[in-house]
Amino acid sequence: MNKLLCIVGPTGTGKTAKAIELAQKQPSILISADSRQVYRGMDIVTGKDHPAGFPIFGLDIVDPGDPCSVAVWYEAVMPAIVQAWQEAKLPIVVGGTGLYVKALTHGIETMHVPINQALRNELLSLSIIKLQQKLVQLDKAKFESLNHSDSLNPRRLTRAIEVAQHRTSHPERALASRMGHMDTILIGLKYSVESIQRNKIQERVISRLKQGAIQETQALLLKYSPSLQSISAIGYRSIIRYLAKSCTKQETINTWVADELAYVKRQMTWFRKQPVIWYDIDTYGNTQN
């Protein structure tokens, strides 16, 4: 049976370092499951500071101006995973984007519903209320299943409308996972003490600023709109406000850290619903045991 190891958990917990450590002990390949690291040229802010000598699949898949989705990522990494199995290597998936991990472990029914850019352009001008009304017309059950945050999120609403419209147009297509049976293990790394996690994230933010995060953002803004989903990611949006002189550098650090901590909470909410074997890294250190 094909095997798959997933090392998951919130940002800043040393998942990639642990994956590399394990990869040195047996024939393996590494797969990044990080939706912020799929974009080319978005390196410093997203923490794409991986050591040389360990190729990682799932990075630099699209340009920041290109649309991306879990399906795009899935199609990019699956050939490497299949080849690894054929060569008797262990695919180690490492990252904090739960939806990407789920695409591999369980499949996602809507994953292969294609992006409808014409529809997205049409919906772009609609208010939240109009988007909600449109989704209710197409799929009331889906709208009622959304949590409060998603029901007010234009990107989530747009995707739900896109999926609902696709299903209406293609009722004969039943989408299912193509993974088949696997022996899957999910290992999670997390902090049990919030203050330690906050300090770790703040250290990472300050380090990335020293590495050139502001200069990277400036270079991206010369080519891309700040309204793009990619450029409005955590870190970039704080720096964009700083470049617009809307906040001080310290305020930039504070908002970036706060955004990362909020993201950590969302990550943990997702992964706590999955069959993850957890390790508290502030208790077990580097989890060598």
Automatic annotation (TrEMBL):
Record's keyword terms, sorted: ATP-binding, Magnesium, Nucleotide-binding, Transferase, tRNA processing
InterPro entries per UniProt: Dimethylallyltransferase, IPT, P-loop_NTPase
Binding site for substrate: T11, G12, T13, G14, K15, T16
Superkingdom of source: Bacteria
Site (Interaction with substrate tRNA): T97, R120
Pfam families named in the record: IPPT
Cofactor dependence: Mg(2+)
NCBIfam families, per database record: miaA (TIGR00174)
Protein name (Swiss-Prot/TrEMBL): tRNA dimethylallyltransferase
The species this protein was found in: Candidatus Collierbacteria bacterium CG09_land_8_20_14_0_10_46_12
Gene behind this protein: miaA
